[in-house]
Amino acid sequence: MRLGIGILSAVLALCLAHGAAIAAEVFTVQATYNLVTPSADKAIDALRKYVTDRGGYVHSYSSSEITLRIPASEEGNLRPVLLRIGYISDENIVKQEISQALTDLNTSLKVKNDHLAKLYGIFSGSGIAETLEVEKEIARVVMEIENIKGRINWYRDRSSLSGVTVRFYKSGERGKPAGRAENIVEWIRMLGVENLMRAY
Amino acid sequence: MRAGRTVIIIMTFALVAVLCGCETTFTLRQPDGFAVYTRETASYKAITADGVRLRAFSRKNEPRGDAGMWGETVRVSLAERGYRLTSEKALSGRNNMRGKLYEYDYWYNGEDYRYSVGLFVEDDVVYIIEACGEAASYDRRKNDIAAAMNSFDAKKN
What we know:
The complex is a heterodimer of chains A (200) and B (157). With 200 residues, chain A is an alpha+beta fold. Helices cover 60% and strands 21% of the residues of chain A. A 5-stranded mixed β-sheet of chain A has the order 2-3-5-1-4. In chain A, α5 runs antiparallel to α6. Chain B is of the alpha+beta class and 157 residues long. Chain B is 26% helix and 46% strand. Chain B has 4 helices and 10 strands. In chain B, the strands form 2 sheets. In chain B, strands 3-4-5-9-8-7-6 form a 7-stranded antiparallel β-sheet, sandwiched between helices. In chain B, β6 and β7 form a beta hairpin. The longest helix of chain B has 16 residues.
């Protein structure tokens, strides 16, 4: 009976630990889309409005490319928006897990803060001869702490806002790869608003 | 009956004749407000003053399929390209011709557009009728366009 309860507790503990590990997973997402669209200007206007309405911002843009930073929770909703603007001829999404890096940085930060507290303790009780050395050490540790904080903030920013670059192409510049249906016959590819508008 | 509705456009498709070894003609009632490109011979094309377009053409039924197969192929292709299907209806042309009509919403050039495609399949020929326009303009003519598609008739000579 005791053995059974022990095994159950161990399994429960493992499950909880696993759940905590899953909950702590943090990612950065960097997406790149090639979009075939009749008007890059209108597409840029539409994407600028979309991203600002959702709490993101435009990182940079030119006549042929726009880079957005959008809340990670919105990144998955962007693809349907792009499909309303044009064809996605190519896409590349890189998702990087940064949980370990963040954990390491937080651990380092804690160690450095503890070290700094000890240095302040030594500093307050030190004689004149030691003061200069302790001051130098404090300055070095403070710099390291600020550096670690900066890196943590960078990772947090990267994980909360996904980077999305959209490159614009006009029809014919970079052909949309044929989908399953379009492999069958050429006339299927002729269908649609773009071709119908061009035909007149 | 108004004069505009009585005009019957008959198009002869030389291209189909080459492909199928037979000559096929089809008729389509001209909807109100549309002007027809009379010099066009490869397809039927008409347009309104506010830019709603109507086009019809035919292609060889190769690989051979029925209206359902071609309808599904078109549906999948357009879905992959971002077209949002809003309705799927049966078309009934003259002489008991049965077809399918798919209507879509689409965003083109930063504007809301409507697009519809009707398909009729008869033996070795697929007939395709398309229409599109800015949402407001298209919606005003939606019924006329559907009526034109339902007036479709094809004849092999």
